[in-house]
Amino acid sequence: MNREAESNGANTLGSDLRISRRELLKGAGSCVGAAAIFSIVGSSNVNAQAKDASMPQVGDVFVFSTGKNKGNVISLNDLVVDAPPVVARAKDPVAGVERDHRTSASIVLLLRIKPETVPAELQTSAAQGVLAYSAWCTHLGCVIDQWDANKKVFKCPCHKSAFDPVQGGKVTDGPAPRPLPILPLKIVDDKPTVAGDFTARVGPQRS
Question: Does domain 1-207 have CATH number 2.102.10.10?
Fold first, then answer.
């Protein structure tokens, strides 16, 4: 996203009703078991993604994904408080290479707000007011690269889903079925740096 685009407003998630005690307990046990399995599978999906080399890894820095500064490492000073977000990609600082370009998994939206306005529930993920969200839309997988300056929400260019970064990436409009996952940050040598795994599986909804 270049600065010209940022200045233009909206820039470019039976018949027998009697149930015996045994049947009731059996049914309840099945529900609990299903919930446990769902929880384990969901957790496994997130953990599997965290190990994927195309995903941001702890210690990664970020580079501009678009614009005249494309490929340059992003410092804290590059992120202006209350300005539109920066579309960025994670980079391995040791190997000196960006994460896999063949997927959208490592693309994030970096947004900086006043530290005192970061909600309590996001404090552990933010760093000096900087928040990082997956830019991979949870609907059909488009890359989110627009910003509604009036509503202060991320906008997907494909089907107009909107996500509120101050409400944990909550879906505020459109067909996206779930919020955008957030990526925990820390500041190292004046650079936003990955501090943990995404809070949920990134990318589009799977059937």
Answer: yes
